[in-house]
């Protein structure tokens, strides 16, 4: 385990490496928050990244996971206001929690491995980021409130034909730049403000 606040605020910490046979399973709350840590590769057995773990890490541009990563969840504000530019999330990963990537002004690309088991994208997960396009995995059942709020560079959101999405919560795409949107077949509820101030939205397909 790396416990809470273990390296928080370490202003000269630029590099953290792990051995290939690392037995690390958990990175605690605020573990590296506001440190100057650079790119990092997360060990294969880590199944939890705690709240605010990499919050405000201004030099953190890249996070890598192995293809067989055991990661299950990224907790509240884990990478919020960091300098991440892109990220590919593991297959067995199932939850992006509240504000996990909010305020990531350099974050343009988010990718999911084929067969992703992601179940939910929670409140404000990518709000105020610079995402340009995203393909939501078929296993996702809900898109949380203000999930892509103020994502002014977001033009394209796609879903596979077998999407299990059921609910799009309040203000999910508020003030984004999406141009077209195809509502998956199993969606039963679209809440208020979902497409509020989407001035480039020309076509919605049901």
Overview of this structure, please?
The protein has no helices and 16 strands. It is mostly beta strands and 206 residues long. The radius of gyration is 17 Å and the shape is globular. It starts with 25 loop residues before the first strand and ends with a strand.
Brief write-up:
The protein has 206 residues and is mainly beta. The protein contains no helices and 16 strands.
Number of helical regions:
0
Helix-residue proportion: under 10%
Q: Bin the strand percentage.
A: 15-25%
Structural class category: mainly beta
SSE string: EEEEEEEEEEEEEEEE
Between the first and last Cα atoms, what is the distance in angstroms?
47 Å
Global shape = globular
Mean pLDDT: 97
Number of strand elements: 16
In this structure, how is the largest beta sheet organized? Answer: 8 strands, parallel
Strand order of the largest sheet: 1-3-5-7-9-11-13-15
Secondary-structure blueprint:
Layout: E1 26-27, E2 40-42, E3 48-49, E4 63-65, E5 73-74, E6 86-89, E7 95-96, E8 109-112, E9 120-121, E10 133-135, E11 142-143, E12 156-158, E13 167-168, E14 180-182, E15 189-190, E16 203-205
List keywords for this structure.
206 residues, mainly beta, eight-stranded parallel sheet, two-stranded parallel ribbon, globular
């Amino acid at each position: 385990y790396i416990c809470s606040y273990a390296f928080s605020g370490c202003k000269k910490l630029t590099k953290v490496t792990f051995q290939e046979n690392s037995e690390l399973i958990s990175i605690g709350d605020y573990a590296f928050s506001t440190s100057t840590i650079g790119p990092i590769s997360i060990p294969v057995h880590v199944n939890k990244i705690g709240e605010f773990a990499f919050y405000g890490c201004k030099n953190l541009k890249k996070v890598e996971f192995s293809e067989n990563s055991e990661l299950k969840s990224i907790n509240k504000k884990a990478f919020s206001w960091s300098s991440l530019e892109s990220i590919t999330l593991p297959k067995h990963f199932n939850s992006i929690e509240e504000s996990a990537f909010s305020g990531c002004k350099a974050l343009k690309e988010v990718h999911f491995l084929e067969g992703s088991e992601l179940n939910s994208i929670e409140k404000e997960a990518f709000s105020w980021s610079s995402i340009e396009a995203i393909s939501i995995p078929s296993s996702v059942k809900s898109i949380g409130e203000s999930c892509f709020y103020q994502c002014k560079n977001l033009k394209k959101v796609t879903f596979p034909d077998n999407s299990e999405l059921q609910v799009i919560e309040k203000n999910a795409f508020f003030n984004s730049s999406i141009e077209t949107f195809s509502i998956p077949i199993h969606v039963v509820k679209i809440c208020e403000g979902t497409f509020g101030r989407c001035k480039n939205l020309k076509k919605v397909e049901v």
